[in-house]
Design goal:
The complex is a heterodimer of chains A (153) and B (717). Chain A is α+β, with helices and mostly antiparallel strands and 153 residues long. Chain A has helices at 22-29, 85-92, 102-115, 121-127, 137-150, and strands spanning 3-7, 10-14, 48-51, 54-57, 70-72. A five-stranded mixed beta sheet of chain A has the order 2-1-5-3-4, sandwiched between helices. In chain A, a hairpin with a 2-residue loop joins strand 3 (48-51) and strand 4 (54-57). Chain A starts with a strand and ends with a helix. Chain B is α+β, with helices and mostly antiparallel strands. Chain B has three domains: 7-211, 2-Layer Sandwich (Aldehyde Oxidoreductase, domain 4), CATH 3.30.365; 217-288 and 345-420, Aldehyde Oxidoreductase, domain 4, CATH 3.30.365.10; 300-338 and 431-706, 2-Layer Sandwich (Aldehyde Oxidoreductase, domain 4), CATH 3.30.365.10. Chain B has 20 helices and 26 strands. Classes of the chains: A alpha+beta (153), B alpha+beta (717). The interface between A and B is large, with 54 and 63 residues.
Amino acid sequence: MPTTFTINNRPVTVDIDPDSPLLWVVRDTLDLKGTKFGCGKAACGACTLHVDGMAVRSCAFPLKYAEGKTITTIEGLAEGDNLHPVQQAWTEMVVPQCGYCQPGFMMATAALLNKIPNPTDDDIDANIVNVCRCATYYRMRKAIHRAAEISGG
Amino acid sequence: MPNPTSSSRRKFLVRATVGVGLLVGTAYCAPIRRKIAERIDGSVQSYDGNTEDPLLWFEITTANRVIFRCPKMEMGQGIFTGLAQIAAEELAVDVTQIDVIPAATDSGPIDKFGTGGSSTTASLWGPLRDLAATMRVMLINEAARQAGVAASTLSAADGVISGGGLSVTYGEVVARAGNWEVPDVPPLKPAKDYRFVGKPVARVDLREKVIGAPIFGMDVSLPGMLYGAIVRPDGLASTFKGADTSAAEGMPGVVRIVTEKDFVGVIATSYVEAENAKRKIVATWKNDRSWDTFDVEAAIRVGKGKAIEIQKEGKAKRMLKDDAPGLITAEYFSPIGAHAQLEPSGAVADVRADGATIHISTQVVDHTRREVAERLGMKEDAIVIQPTYLGGGFGRRLHTPNAMQAAVLSRAVGQPVKCFFTRKEEFQNDTFRPPTHNVLKATLTPDGRIAALSHDISSGDVMYGSPLLPGVLKTLIGADLGAWRGGMIHYHGIPNYRAVSWRVRLPFATSWWRGLGLLANTFAVESFMDELAGHAGKDPVGFRLDHLTDSKEDVRMAKVIAACAERAGYRNDAVDGRAMGFACSTDTGTPCAHVAEVSLQDGRIRVEKVTCVLDPGLVINPDQVRAQCEGSIIMGMSAVLYERMQVKNSSLRPVIYGAYEMALIKDAPREIDVLLLENDDAPGAVGEPPMGPIGAAIANAVYRLTGERIRRMPLEV
């Protein structure tokens, strides 16, 4: 049964097992590789993308629930050449090391700022629960505050 | 920067344009200068590969950009940036004109060792400047020939050659190039003229990593590519005996099932189909006996394995017998640790009748190529390893049997196959950080100095657990120098000291992990130094300084110790529910000290602040050296406070993040203050040394806060 949704402002219809995790549809069918596989059990957050503006761990999100939804991945976070405030802050603070988990963190942060425009450290602790093995957390916290500032939060 | 996985870029623009073989002798390589540099930081693994052919390393495009094919891999350390800075100085280009890409084996320099041991910058500091300077002179000479002027009238800056009215870009020179005259290596730029070295240049890979560009091994996608899945055992010490694949045969999307003598795998048209079919395969494994955590801990104890004395000064052995008066002894433990890097191990293999291309995140390009060639029965030259950016390395990608497995699957179907570990397989089939047991003994003099000190280190294999034994390391074989790393006594003012390495073979793979034995062994030594200072009634910082000599190495360490204590405002008493702990270590020639400030929150240790002083010699990029310190501190803290693999019914667990507890943003110190000293004129090790002291710094702080001495990782109050 085909599933229809919008991804990064582009309408798509895919005819894939509706129980397939959205992650693999995004990565392999739609060839958007910025959303990463980390664990397949929604435990690390590397696969975080937005479904109707909410942060979702796509490795454990069945395709069928994407029907009619608006999905944004890291590739769709910027508006043209203008990086999203979160991406700008990540750049200013030089957050990434290996970089693999960073799209998931940036998507989680962008969703947090939608919900809480000027998050406190406690808000960050409670909401940003992805895993980064390079342990770039120290700069991430600064970058999250900076992103809020850039967004005018 | 171009996509490193794009094969269309793998051409020699310079060579294709010139069409003339390059005669480059070895004379210009300045081996003497390099040897001096190596001696300055003698303990860093030297670069083992081509240092003679600038055209193998650099490609000048007609658009006047430099493509730098790098034999060392970028896994977060920031080396692509630092090496671009170094190259830019001697190439006489702006650093932003350089595109660094991972060198493929058919078109770039090949590193016979690999990326690791915090050795990249130190080992390429000499060769890379020579190569870049030679390249610059070749371009100037060629420009002079084309213009019919003397080269001495020309100079280069920002990729433009000018002088006597001439102004021509490198790209223009290359487009018209005829025969190259190969010069000797010219004199290198003096340090006072550096434009990029020492500056916080932004990472060259920053934009790609911020926009989510497809730069990792797992992002590679080839036309006609299928998906493979290998059945991996739940149990440790499992030998593959065979498999019943009948239930998987008819599963949706299944293309082929491949049963080899050592593994079974399935190939399907999508990732999900391959994984679903894999679960229907019933493999049979042979296991010798049952193992639990208790058995591993019993096996790892000092006295059980094979002992080799690795350090001996004076009469420590005789002085520290069990009945020695005033003998102080303590034992420390560390658990099995997982790499838990975010990008799982895997590869994309494209095997054809006459050769193969492997796209892979690997730390050992040459080793990966050899492994694949052997398995396929092909010559190494027929195998192209196309490395990508690594989604974390930490030593995990010094083992790459996954490349060979993907190649076997690809050969079976004659199409490209992508094959990666699941997270459960990654946790159960890791090449773990081995558990350790450390026993320290000492006696003190009446005036509170150490009379004798010994350190017994018992560990599973590190270097011996690796198929990779680099030539330089071979000469040192006799003890597992990975296992005892960080375990030698560096307080050379102690008159009698000794270190012994005990090798224990465990029933599961253990090997390289960031810093190797550094984390656990320094945790033991530096906790014990703190305990001894307590017994002696001395301040722990002054006590450490008291046992250093006036040797160059010790003076450098002393400066780091004093600077760290001062910067942190180190004090022994707890204030407002917070206490400080001090620890230091020197690793591959780089001394480092930490002061950790801790509190207790809800019965758990919280690291509030870490002050770090590091002396890696010449700093190429201070921002990225700081980033390595921050990452090392938090990753080390994570291992010290939370991480532990267990063995139950012969199965390693947990198998998922969360259950394998690791530091998250909430756990990271809110303050990390890094001070860099530069007591050397060449760069040294950075990526691992800051991990050394963190365990003991935290444990020593907890002791000052609670009076409880914790000698077992993960630390629990």
